[in-house]
Amino acid sequence: MRNAKIAILILLLAAFSMVASVYAEDKGQPATKILIKKTEPRTVAVMKHKGPFTDISTVMPKLIGEVDRGGYAVAGPVMCMFFNSPENTAQADLLWEVMIPVAYPGPLGQAQLDRMTFQYSDVATVAYTYHIGPYEKINDTYKLLFDWARRNQYKTEGNPVDIYWSDQAKTPKEKLVTEVWLPVEEKKVPGIAR
Fold first, then answer.
1. pTM score of the predicted model
2. Tell me: the pLDDT tens digits for 33-60?
3. In a designed cystine with 84, which of 89, 105, 146, 168 is the match (CB 3.0 to 4.6 A)?
């Protein structure tokens, strides 16, 4: 487990310094700049869970422990994918998964509740930004992303993802850095008939 924690810490420190330099001009305020990018293909260790998002404090360490015990090489920060929204779903019925990119996975399989499996994620086009601050306020960032996509002729395609660049055990809430992805596809605007 020590090797996995060290690898995650190194990735977090490198990413945080990159993000901090990008947003230095914002004096710690949440960024509203939204960009489009293609994600990299990756294989992830996945643990699907049903229940409130507050359960992440037990699900994440469980997945990290299983990755470490299996000797898998961590290849990126912890991520979380959301399948439904707390705005219209009971807390007990929220479905989400914690993911850790790994370099040398075991066999790929279908995600199961509270068990580690491995999945391949292909390239995706995402609208993204950074949320700086407590996780409890991240819905404001998601609202900005959804509004931006609608105004800029993108339709949402897939489930939102958070990438946790900060170690929440060591970082004050107001300085937590989370990259927020919203998978999108550009809407096709019909041309003028000639």
1. 0.76
2. 999 999 999 999 999 999 998 898 899 9
3. 89
